[in-house]
């Protein structure tokens, strides 16, 4: 939208917390934000974080109040860091399950679950699978109430390969892709 | 409003806006924000395709090129998105809050009157009637941090100085801010 003669201002957004840099201090990742800003926008960094600017910002506040605010911000940052850590742990601990379900004696469907943790949109992936394998693929809720992709046809190997390459792209090489097999119980004969 | 906004569950449909409707929309926007008259063609170019994204609670987002410009709940006035306010700050009515209020606004609180009347905060000299959509700036900061709707006249805020003065619609870091329309 920023064409010539435009009246709009362009605002720099922090690459870490997406806020305008002025507000980074209220996010939980101030340290990372600062580093980012120093790399990308030196002048802005100087303006915001130089000694002068800091002195000015704290001018109107009493020392006690200032300390309190600082403590609170630190607390928040610790919290945020913890949260990020936990999330990463969770990501590494979870795995993608590729399940082969028998439909009839020699026909199978493949159910892929456990994708949501990695920020993969199941609907889109289903669509890619559908066009890739020229079969039907849909997103359904499984027994645990989570999304899973059901692909018609016995394409487990290809799916596994594709999913692991997808994860690798996201830098999550250590995530396991597990294969399981599931046979529905035979119908009791009447 | 967007504290618990989830792009997966809350977005229902996405449709292109007809150009005739788009024109009507533009005139309505100018009516609401008279200052926008000069720049409306830059915000919504004549040839651009506006997209309306319908969400839960009769909420519609108006987006162009994957960026939300305005939102509207049912028949309420339009509310500009923060990114738009950042681009065109002086074209919207604005108020300023003190530094102490920033923290609370960024966690989604409404703005209480004392935050608008204290030293460091600033209310405009002219009177805005209740219901005006205002951009909210902060003491010592250049960019807006929230957009909200006045619940009382600015004169009344100065007089009463108690309770909620602005209902915050969208703020930095909320669901609308982090929403990505691909």
Describe this structure in words.
The complex is a heterodimer of chains A (190) and B (182). Chain A has helices spanning 30-40, 42-49, 51-57, 63-93, 122-133, 156-169; strands at 96-104, 107-113, 137-141, 147-152, 177-182. Chain A contains six helices and five strands, in the order H-H-H-H-E-E-H-E-E-H-E. Chain A folds into two domains: 21-92, no CATH class; 95-182, SUI1-like domain (Translation Initiation Factor Eif1, 2-Layer Sandwich). Chain A is α+β, with helices and mostly antiparallel strands. Chain B has 182 residues and is of the alpha+beta class. Chain B folds into two domains: 7-86, Sulfate adenylyltransferase (Roll), CATH 3.10.400; 88-171, Sulfate adenylyltransferase (Roll). Chain B has seven helices and ten strands. Chain B has helices spanning 7-10, 19-32, 40-43, 82-87, 99-106, 114-117, 154-160, and strands at residues 11-16, 50-55, 59-64, 67-73, 79-80, 94-97, 111-112, 133-138, 146-150, 164-171. Chain B has a five-stranded antiparallel beta sheet. Chain B has a five-stranded mixed beta sheet with strand order 6-8-9-10-7. In chain B, strand 8 and strand 9 (146-150) form a beta hairpin. Chain B is globular and about 45 Å long. The mean pLDDT of chain B is 88. Classes of the chains: A alpha+beta (190), B alpha+beta (182).
Core attributes:
heterodimer; A: alpha+beta; five-stranded mixed sheet; 6 helices; 17% strand; elongated; B: 182 residues; alpha+beta; Sulfate adenylyltransferase; five-stranded antiparallel sheet; protein biosynthesis (chain A)
The rounded distance between the terminal residues' Cα atoms of chain B is 22 Å
Question: Any idea what the shape of chain B is?
Answer: globular
Main sheet overview of chain A: 5 strands, mixed
Structural category of chain A is: alpha+beta
Number of structural domains of chain A: 2
**How far apart are the first and last residues' alpha carbons of chain A, in Å?**
70 Å
- Give me the count of strands of chain B: 10
Shape of chain A: elongated
CATH topology-level fold name of the largest domain in chain A: Translation Initiation Factor Eif1
Strand content of chain A: 15-25%
| Spans of at least 5 consecutive residues with low confidence of chain B | none
Run of helices and strands of chain B: HEHHEEEEHEHEHEEHE
Helix content of chain B: 25-40%
Class of the largest domain in chain B in CATH? Alpha Beta
CATH superfamily annotation of the largest domain in chain A:
SUI1-like domain
Q: Indicate the mean pLDDT of chain B.
A: 88
């Amino acid at each position: 939208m920023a064409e010539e003669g435009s009246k709009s201002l362009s605002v720099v957004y922090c690459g870490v917390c997406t806020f305008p840099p002025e507000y980074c201090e209220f996010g939980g990742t101030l340290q990372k934000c600062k580093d980012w800003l120093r790399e990308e926008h030196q002048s802005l960094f100087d303006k915001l974080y130089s000694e002068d600017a800091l002195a000015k910002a704290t001018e109107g506040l009493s020392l006690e109040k200032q300390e309190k605010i600082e403590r609170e911000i630190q607390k928040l940052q610790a919290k945020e860091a913890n949260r990020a850590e936990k999330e990463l742990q969770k990501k590494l601990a979870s795995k993608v399950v590729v399940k082969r379900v028998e439909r009839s004696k020699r026909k199978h469907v493949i159910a892929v679950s456990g994708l949501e943790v990695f920020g993969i949109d199941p609907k889109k992936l289903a669509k890619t699978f559908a066009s890739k394998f020229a079969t039907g693929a849909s997103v359904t809720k499984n027994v645990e109430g989570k999304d899973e992709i059901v692909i018609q046809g016995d394409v487990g190997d290809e799916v596994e390969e594709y999913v692991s390459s997808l994860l690798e792209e996201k830098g999550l090489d250590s995530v396991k892709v597990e294969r399981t097999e599931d046979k529905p119980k035979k119908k009791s004969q009447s | 409003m967007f504290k618990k906004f989830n792009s997966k569950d809350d977005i229902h449909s996405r449709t292109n806006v007809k150009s005739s409707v788009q024109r009507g929309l533009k005139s309505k926007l100018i009516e609401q924000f008279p200052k926008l008259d000069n720049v409306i063609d830059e915000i919504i170019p004549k040839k651009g395709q506006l997209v309306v994204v319908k969400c839960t609670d009769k909420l519609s987002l108006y987006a162009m090129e994957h960026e939300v410009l305005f939102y509207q709940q049912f028949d309420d006035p339009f509310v500009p998105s923060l990114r738009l306010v950042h681009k065109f700050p002086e074209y919207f009515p604005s108020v300023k809050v003190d530094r102490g209020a920033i923290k609370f606004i960024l966690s989604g609180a409404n703005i209480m009157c004392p935050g608008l009347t204290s030293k460091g905060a600033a209310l405009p000299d002219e009177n805005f009637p209740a219901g005006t959509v205002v951009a909210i700036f902060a003491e010592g900061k250049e960019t807006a941090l929230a957009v909200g709707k006045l619940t009382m006249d600015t004169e009344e805020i100065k007089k009463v100085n108690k309770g909620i003065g602005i209902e915050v619609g969208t703020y930095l870091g909320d669901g609308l801010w982090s929403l990505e329309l691909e």
